[in-house]
Amino acid sequence: MAELVGPPDGWWARRIGEPRTVVLSTTGPGGRAHAAAVWYLWRDGEVQIVTGRGSQKHRNIERTGQAAVTWLDDWRYLTAAGPVTAEPLTREDRYALWAHYRGPEVAAKETASDAHEEMVLLRLSPARWWGQW
Fold first, then answer.
1. What is residue 5's predicted lDDT score, i.e. its pLDDT?
2. pTM of the prediction?
3. pLDDT tens digit sequence for 69-103
């Protein structure tokens, strides 16, 4: 395992901007780990994730204010951990996530409803990076 000082460069820097599924890890009730596969956006130096308001991920983050995400690629991995906040999700942020993964046409269909009002945007600001590559 290697630890980085700041965000990765080179190969990993390109990979974290791609539409990939990552593992979001939070601390659940009683100190147990809670891990879930999620879509994300890498924007302005933070990992942005959409989840349901009141979901286990959301409740864990509201309680602890900390999370980690892990990118996997065969035997390689990269993890970023740090403080995370939750805020109301806008239709525009939901559209950006869908467009990143499925393109603008599908994104327009998926975000036409007001479903974003039942979701939150998680913003993870990586304070620590580590992995194996």
1. 67
2. 0.91
3. 999 988 889 999 999 999 999 999 999 999 999 99
Nearest-5° Cα angle at 131, 61 to 10: 110
Tens-place pLDDT, residues 20-33: 999 999 999 999 99
- Could you give all domains of the chain from N- to C-terminal order, each with its CATH number? 2-132 (2.30.110.10)
Q: What is the Cβ-side half-sphere exposure of residue 40, based on CA atoms within 13 angstroms? A: 29
For the chain, the residue count is: 133
Residue among 67, 81, 64 at smallest CA distance from 131 = 81
Measured between alpha carbons, how far is 125 from 133 in angstroms, rounded to an integer? 22
SS (H, E, C) 7-40: CCCHHHHHHCCCCCCEEEEEECHHHCEEEEEECC
Does residue 119 sit in helix, strand or coil? strand
